[in-house]
Amino acid sequence: MKLLLFSGTHARHLYVNKEIIKHFDESLVVVMKREHLVPAPPLGISEKDKYNFIKHFNNREKKENKAFNKLRYLDIFKKQNRIFVTPDQLNSMKVAKEVKKFNADICFIFGTNLILDPVIDLLPRNKINLHLGLSPWYKGAATLFWPFYFMNPQFAGITFHQITKKADQGEIIHQSVPNLEYGDTIHDVGVKCIFEAKQDIVKLINHFKKTNFFLGKYQKADGRVWRVKDFHPSHLRLIYDLFDDDLVDQYLDGFLNHEKPKLFSCLTNSYD
Prior knowledge:
The protein is of the alpha/beta class. Helices cover 33% and strands 18% of the residues. It has helices at residues 11-20, 47-68, 73-76, 93-102, 146-149, 186-211, 236-242, 247-252; strands at 2-8, 26-32, 81-85, 106-110, 127-131, 138-140, 158-162, 172-176, 224-226, 264-265, 270-271. The protein has a 7-stranded mixed sheet, with helices on both faces. The protein has a two-stranded parallel ribbon with strand order 6-9. α1 (11-20) runs parallel beside α6.
């Protein structure tokens, strides 16, 4: 079975994607260069917001380096046919020609920008994106951050869905959330989501090999597509200044909203 894989270059992407390629006879990997994991703080913000911004992204890097190691795409995909692209080359004719020639049986996407024309129309029927966030509630960018900002850490999870030309709008095939434990910080939960994704992807691949299809559910509930510009460093005041990054403890102690997301999985054809 032939796999077409679109991968970002961050360790979290490589950690999951190196598992995916183990389960296929032949792979073509399109690797898109990602931005630095620790961005520079925006200009014109307060010293407090600058401090929180640096703390937030440094903590993420430390947690992910410890969890996933400093993986390199050249090591992970050294035996695979691969194309390395920048974000503006992702949907180029060069990529489209290679995708068409390869003629994959299935496509997985984790860590790249949106796949659009002329590439998307050349993908196989099953083109599955791993979205770090629970759709339809949290679509778009920073979707593991916003559940914490709205004091709903139990809504931090993952969604596997078919891709369309609109962000995170395709049929949902599987969702899950990690087990929350006392002491979990916002980035601990993010790491747990990646661990959950790696386990779940194996189940989904095995399911596809047996059935050759994924039963999906259209996204009917209201949600929001979060944009990069929706985030401002001042949002971090709630996480660090007001709650000292202990929102999971607050949730487990019963002080926050206890509504739980209704999750779908094609593995059971049901909602949890």
